[in-house]
Specification:
Elements: H1 2-31, E1 42-43, E2 50-53, E3 56-60, E4 77-82, E5 102-111, E6 117-126, E7 133-139, H2 153-162, E8 167-172, E9 186-188, E10 191-194, E11 209-214, E12 219-223, H3 229-234, E13 237-241, E14 246-249, E15 252-253, E16 271-277, E17 280-286, H4 300-310, E18 314-317, E19 326-328, E20 331-332, E21 344-349
Length: 351
């Protein structure tokens, strides 16, 4: 009897331990562990280019970046690079005024509110076709994002070349698709990946602003609550980013002098995308954090002013700070990038 009772006690103890372990795992799995989000993969008439990087498959997409400065630039140098190929892009509903896609790189400097002068770079982009402005994403084999699916910008570029395209210029992208706390609309290269709206309060949340490019060569900044991803796709949206905030709309600055994203305060290195008119875009990247300095670079407000001065009517902030990266004509241009691994980049391909 004693042995039987002891056996019952031992079995009960083992069961209790197993139950406690399963409960602990379920709590961890539900509230702590990161999981891949499932891509909606609702494809329209456009097709997405795919490439493979290591064990992850990559599909092309677009993104943007930001920087800031209010004072006039002190120096400017310009170089141009126009590359054409015989490959044909998918047709757009409105013809581009440009016979080939070209990129001109402008280097400038400006003095910020800390009285520190920093360099910034503007890639002036003229598109032959709307789908020459693209995004490249690192995805799992099932087409989903995740915090582990990232690579350096140079690796993104290698993937693009391996897929048979010639990139002219690239910047780091949105990052929102890969974050454990960010939500928001994600449309890349004509594919819808996420339609959940952003959370706009609390630590690390986003602005609620999005930026979209369309098949007629135009762009638009908007607040997610005013539309749906279905409406965007029906209107011809080709790319939609949700990092934010919007810097310029109708040539009017949309951020205040003290406004910033949660992770990045005051002067900093920045990445942004800007729109001048149909088929005419810019990429913006600034230096910052040079020698671990906290006073060089630009605020969002200063960056918005620089983009407005350049002629942008709409501009939108992308992932900045240590992720800021400008690749042009075969090499990195900005020197203060941390060369972080990122989930996506925005690039322009030759056509």
């Amino acid at each position: 009897m004693k042995k039987t009772a002891l056996t019952v006690v031992l079995l009960g103890s083992c069961f209790a331990l197993a139950l406690a372990g399963m409960t602990a795992f379920n709590l961890y799995d539900t509230f702590v562990a990161e999981h891949e989000a499932q891509a909606e993969y609702l494809q329209d008439s456009s097709s997405a280019t795919t490439s493979t990087s290591g064990s992850s498959s990559s599909s092309t997409t677009t993104s943007t970046s930001s920087s800031s400065g209010t004072s006039a630039s002190t120096s400017t140098s310009t170089s141009t690079s126009t590359s054409t190929s015989t490959s044909t892009s998918s047709g757009s509903s409105t013809s581009s005024p440009y016979s080939s896609t070209s990129v001109s790189l402008v280097t400038k400097s400006a003095t910020n509110s800390n009285n520190v002068t920093s360099k910034y770079y503007i890639a002036d982009i003229k598109l032959r076709s709307y789908d020459d402005l693209k995004t490249h994403m690192v995805l799992s084999s099932s087409g989903s994002p995740g915090s582990g699916y990232k690579e350096t910008v140079s690796s993104h570029i290698s993937d693009i070349k391996s897929a048979g395209e010639t990139p002219l210029v690239a910047i780091d992208g949105d990052s929102a698709y890969y974050s454990s706390y960010r939500k928001g609309y994600v449309i890349r290269n004509g594919l819808k990946y996420r339609s959940s709206t952003q959370t706009t309060s609390g630590t690390g949340t986003t602005s609620g602003d999005d930026f979209a490019t369309y098949k007629d060569g135009t762009a638009k900044a908007f607040v997610e609550t005013t539309t749906t991803t279905t409406d965007l796709m029906n209107a011809g949206c080709y790319n939609c980013w949700c990092f934010g905030p919007t810097l310029l709309e109708n040539s009017t600055i949309q951020v205040t002098s003290d406004e910033d994203v949660y992770q990045c305060k005051g002067a900093n290195q920045r990445t942004a995308i800007g729109y001048i008119d149909a088929y005419h875009f810019v990429f913006f990247v600034s230096e910052g954090r040079v020698n671990n300095s906290s006073v060089d670079g630009f605020s969002l407000y200063e960056m918005a002013g620089l983009l407005k001065d350049y002629g942008c009517t709409i501009a939108y902030n992308l992932d900045g700070g240590g992720a800021s990266y400008l690749w042009y004509n075969g090499s990195r241009i900005n020197s203060s990038s941390d060369d972080r691994s990122v989930g996506d980049i925005v690039y322009v391909k030759a056509s």
